[in-house]
Amino acid sequence: MVKYYSSKKYGHERGLSAAFRQWKADSHCKYIHGYSLEFEFKFGSNELDERNWVVDFGGLKQLEKWLRNHFDHKTLVASDDPALSKFKSLDEEGIIQMVIVESTGAEMFAKMAMEFSTSLIQENYGDRCWVESVTVREHGANSATCSI
User: Fold this and answer.
1) Which of 67, 74, 76, 95 is surrounded by the fewest CB atoms within 10 Å?
2) What DSSP state is assigned to residue 93?
3) Where are the domains of the chain?
4) Would you say domain 4-147 falls under CATH 3.30.70.260?
């Protein structure tokens, strides 16, 4: 059976600049730090649409909007971070734009993006195509992938 794949990348140059910390880490990752994150979505299908596409890249505006709402100049804080109340105060004072997440790190950001994009693709395309994987890159040396 033939399978088709296409991918959409929201590169580092897009400015999805997010700050976070991994409070459970024993390393310097326990401190607030940030990256201009890159997200790459790989879509799969067993059949192409009438234009011979897996997905219409122009129809992914909701995906970019979701990425901006969650990662563009945001401070992501784990819901179990012991300093959550301090981050909430900073958010209330307008010092940060906080997004509370299940956990922080490229793996969890890839999982979040996988869940949202899967829902979006199913809503727009039904069972004809799917999200094969999402890769999040902090920079050239560090990345994490979530796949089905």
Assistant:
1) 95
2) T
3) 4-147
4) no
**pTM for this predicted structure:** 0.95
pLDDT for 81-126, tens place per residue? 999 999 999 999 999 999 999 999 999 999 999 999 999 999 999 9
Of the candidates 104, 59, 51, the one whose C-alpha atom is nearest the C-alpha of residue 77 is 104
Closest to 42 in 3D by CA, of 137, 147, 131, 146: 131
Looking at residue 92, its amino acid is E
Measured CA to CA, the distance from residue 141 to residue 148 in angstroms comes to 23
Q: Is 98 helix (H, G, I), strand (E, B) or coil?
A: strand
List the structure tokens of 7: 């991918």
Start-end of H helices in the chain: 61-71, 84-92, 106-125
